[in-house]
Amino acid sequence: MRNPELWQRLQATPITMSDQGDLSALVTDTFDVRPGYTARLLTEYRRFLYLVAISDQVLAPSRPIDQVWHLHLADTLAWREYSQRMFGRELRHIKGRPKPADDAAYAQTLEMIEIEFDFEPSQPFWPSQSLQAVTRARASLAGVVASGVGIVTFIGGFHFFGLLILAGGLFYAFSGGLGDGEFAMSRRGDNSDSGIYDVGGDGGGCGGD
């Protein structure tokens, strides 16, 4: 490990928000997750920030890690204070990158986790790019099937419902649907990650350096 002192400090330092609340409590209150999951998630969040701090390359987080980062960034004062205190600079958050499944920077992140921490990253916090690709392919296949159902429904005289099903099917077929989003956390109350988690204008991912 390049900087064990930094990693120990990250593990030992609570992440507090401007209202003196704790980031872990905010994550549990915002997303549909249990406290035990949140504790493990915050460890992986710290792990990613550590890698960004020591690396001279752009790295990319997984969906759940980036959701935590966005939540932290939303409290600008808390984020800047934490970043300066831990790393001596404000780590840069880069929007508009490809989805993790397609981003070479995400592959680099997974490789660095293995090198720095001597373990193989895996679900639910670090899904492999191949697993994400399979998930998206399944969503696309479901879209093709739904499109066929929509056409049959339209021919059967149910024009409105047929067009509705066809439109949804085509979306899934050509975009991979929400396959990539299946690895993201849902917000409490609305079963979606919209609002808190801004994926960027092109629906892609984020990075940091």
UniProtKB/TrEMBL annotation:
Which UniProt keyword terms apply here?
Answer: Membrane, Transmembrane, Transmembrane helix
Q: Where are the transmembrane segments?
A: 141-174
Protein name according to UniProt = Glycine-rich domain-containing protein-like protein
Q: Which organism is it from?
A: Paracoccus denitrificans
